[in-house]
Known about the structure:
Blueprint: H1 2-5, H2 25-47, E1 76-78, H3 85-102, E2 105-108, E3 120-121, E4 126-127, H4 130-146, H5 153-156, H6 160-164, E5 170-172, H7 173-180, H8 197-209, E6 220-222, E7 230-233, E8 242-243, H9 250-256, E9 263-266, H10 267-271, E10 282-284, E11 292-293, E12 296-297, H11 309-317, H12 325-339, E13 343-348, H13 359-372, E14 380-386, H14 397-403, E15 408-411, H15 418-430, H16 432-435, H17 459-467, E16 474-475, H18 481-491
Parallel strand pairs: 1-2, 1-10, 2-5, 6-10, 7-9, 13-14, 13-16, 14-15
Antiparallel strand pairs: 3-4, 8-9, 11-12
Helix pairs in contact: 4-8, 12-15, 12-17
Amino acid sequence: MNQFLNSNRPTPKPWPLKKPSHRSPLLSLSLLTLLFSLLFFLSYYSLTPNSHISPSTKTLNSQFPQCPISQFAQKFLWYAPHSGFSNQVSEFKNAILMAAILNRTLIVPPVLDHHAVALGSCPKFRVSDPNKIRVDVWNHVVELLRTGRYVSMADIIDISSLVSSSVIQTIDFRVFASLWCGVKDFDCFNESNEQSSLFDSLKQCGSLLSGLNGNVDKCVHAVGEDCRTTVWTYQNGEKDGVLDSFQPDEQLKRKKKISYVRRRRDVYQTLGPSSATESATLLAFGSLFTSPYRGSELYIDIHEAPRDQRIQSLIKKIEFLPFVPEILSAGKEFADKNINAYFLCAQLRLLDGQFKNHWKATFLSLKQKVESLGQSPLPIHIFVMTDLPEGNWTGSYLGDLARDSHKFKLHFLREEDELVIKTAKKVVAAKHSLRFAFVPESMGGLKKHCPSERLPDVLLFIEEAVCSCASLGFVGTAGSTIAESVELMRKFGTCASQSLTAL
């Protein structure tokens, strides 16, 4: 965030020392208070860019002529994804829901690097401030653009049915940045022009849209509520603003000096047409992550909307969003051509976070599943997706399976495999996010963007698609969001029946 807080203002010179005067103590105290107040405001404005005008009254039109975008009828919604891919997908679903409820065009973000941005712990009331997480995400997105590693979430997750049926309207982040940040030439953005005006414009624009300048009337409203203070609801019949059932306990309040109170707020009443927020062309959320906890939801508690059939239908549709056809086809191709037999899928998460301390339980689940398959004259085929390098399998149950080649035949994918590379190229060429995006007529259709210098990492997605085809079952790591994703794919039958050789 520091790059947004730099200022060109000169550092104020120290106040000159004066001999003590014989003023009254009350007058001295008043002068001292005035001095500290002056120093505080000087410090604040020296750290905050373009803050010569109060955030509540400034227009910033001279620096950001596109703010507000009065020529567009659309209003936009932006948010800050974070953590691993599965959590990013979960937030993406929540963003789709929020955008539909508030009737805003959703800005589709890229897929962020694994844990490049972290939220913190909602149950412990220790999370990044919405402004900070928005800045962190903006910086990372710009870095993805600069290094040629950008791939949109809509290039990986198929939202074509939602967009084609006009359930939601989307805009690709790159198109959005072109509009809002005054970027005229968006065709070449890489490491060679890191110090260019394009890079500077994006950084400056991020300062505004992340909320560091405060809310800008009719332009930007940066949502300050997060999971420490708010649970968003919709048409649940409760009185708006009631206390949520989950609150920080007294011990946590004393230990962490927490003063937060969690209230349940109707998102439509708070941020919808009848609110002051409605006039803002851009509504910027922080994290949209939520999950059940102690009988409540950490941030978003919207599971049904019986009085709004449009939203009720959308809630059902986003329960499962499949991968794009290119990825699903790759998974089916590997299952059909490379394995070509009934097989078991084992998803073993062993090195990341809490999972590195639960090897025994993880391998035990796999062993029990393998033993339940019984004896067979032919080897049992197992597709393995794991973060444990093959060279480290020795001494583990995976190593035992690999050595017993008469009973077991293991299959796995690598980043350098031809199928993975071919699929990555197809994903880049398809440009789903741009194809289904809202693009203003003033832009003359889709702009031609600089092609990715590096292929996106699609290995995990293909692995999940392969596991959805596992006819002998699936064994996943307990607590892994990847395992939950595979289970959801299998529940919705994403893999068509394969022509398999019978055992």
